[in-house]
């Protein structure tokens, strides 16, 4: 099984904003939605899906288990709570949100519990998020690499994560790039601006097309229907080798997200 190349993110979106964003996205043709227990918007995502009229089997819904729910006796009940909020019998993909070293639950324990959730039919696929190489190796050791559908990581033109991405590729684990737009920062980049001009495209489309062309899945979020619509068209944009090389040169270790206690040692 594969994961969709293009989805919509919902981080930071609450209440009516997330309902509107997911409703617009589904209306525009998005079929993959990324949420998480900690986003506290699963119920609104579920409402928007129910009201959209799009059949559940046409959708790909991802959620992520939050840190206090990693223990063997908590993970599956917490996923069942998420599913009730999402108004679904299953998730398409369930991720461990952060490695959270030192929270008292081993990678072996939470990955086995997650694999058990899959066996029980609560999630079609399982995966990890924000896992550096060492923690990914431990997750592979726990459940086998073929079980890990993706590692969802921060990856943008300013944080290209080449070492981790190369390792994941070697292992055959697909990369999902989150914050591909660096929460809007890369949209003001002059080099990306020039590439966009050459293609008569937006800077967001260029950044998204760059990630897609490297083989990564993307999940950009937006509160605006016109941005959701134009982002989706990044799938039709073909960047040249020269464009790709110019963007490769923008790397600056521009990490936006690294919460203490949740992140492990980055590669
Ligand atoms: N696994 C994790 O730990 C993790 C962490 C962070 C995020 N994520 C996931 O990844 C998703 C994407 O990340 P993100 O939402 O933080 O950041 P992002 O997609 O990099 O950027 C979103 C920002 O860019 C703006 N934007 C989007 N399209 C635009 C366009 N065409 N033109 C101009 N501005 C545009 C949005 O503003 P407007 O609303 O004004 O369009 C918003 O401020 C999240 O929603 C979440 O689902 C996962």
Automatic annotation (TrEMBL):
BP-aspect Gene Ontology terms: methylglyoxal catabolic process
Entry's Gene Ontology molecular function annotations: 2,5-didehydrogluconate reductase activity; methylglyoxal reductase (NADPH) (acetol producing) activity
CDD domains per UniProt: AKR_AKR3F2
Domain spans labelled NADP-dependent oxidoreductase: 8-250
Catalytic activity: hydroxyacetone + NADP(+) = methylglyoxal + NADPH + H(+)
Record-listed substrate binding positions: 97
Domain of life of the source: Bacteria
Coiled coil regions, renumbered to chain: none
Active site as annotated: 39
Site (Lowers pKa of active site Tyr): 64
Keywords, alphabetical: NADP, Oxidoreductase
EC number: 1.1.1.274
InterPro entries: AKR, Aldo/ket_reductase_CS, NAD(P)_OxRdtase_dom_sf, NADP_OxRdtase_dom
NCBIfam families xref list: PRK11172.1 (NF008377)
Protein family membership: Belongs to the aldo/keto reductase family.
Name recorded for this polypeptide: 2,5-diketo-D-gluconic acid reductase B
Phylogenetic placement of the source organism: Bacteria, Pseudomonadati, Pseudomonadota, Betaproteobacteria, Burkholderiales
Protein's gene: dkgB_2
């Amino acid at each position: 099984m594969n994961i969709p190349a293009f989805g919509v993110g919902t981080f930071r979106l609450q209440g009516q904003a997330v309902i509107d964003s997911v409703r617009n996205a589904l209306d525009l043709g998005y079929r993959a939605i990324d949420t998480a227990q900690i986003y506290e918007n699963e119920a609104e995502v579920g409402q928007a899906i129910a009201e959209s009229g799009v059949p559940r089997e046409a959708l790909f819904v991802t959620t992520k288990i939050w840190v206090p729910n990693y223990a063997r006796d908590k993970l599956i009940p917490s996923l069942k709570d998420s599913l009730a909020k999402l108004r679904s019998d299953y998730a398409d993909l369930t991720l461990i949100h952060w490695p959270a070293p030192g929270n008292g639950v081993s990678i072996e324990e939470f990955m086995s519990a997650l694999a058990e959730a899959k066996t029980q039919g609560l999630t079609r696929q399982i995966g990890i998020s924000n896992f550096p190489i060492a923690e990914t190796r431990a997750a592979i050791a726990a459940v086998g690499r073929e079980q890990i559908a993706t590692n969802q990581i921060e990856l943008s033109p300013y944080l290209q994560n080449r070492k981790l991405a190369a390792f994941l590729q070697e292992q055959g684990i697909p990369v999902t790039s989150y914050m591909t737009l660096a929460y809007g920062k890369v949209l003001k980049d002059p080099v990306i601006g020039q590439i966009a001009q050459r293609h008569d495209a937006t800077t967001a489309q260029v950044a998204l097309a760059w990630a897609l062309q490297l083989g990564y899945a993307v999940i950009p979020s937006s509160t605006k229907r016109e941005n959701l619509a134009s982002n989706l068209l990044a799938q039709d944009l073909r960047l040249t080798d020269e464009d790709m090389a110019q963007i490769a040169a923008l790397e600056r270790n521009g990490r936006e997200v690294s919460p203490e206690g949740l992140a492990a040692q980055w590669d």
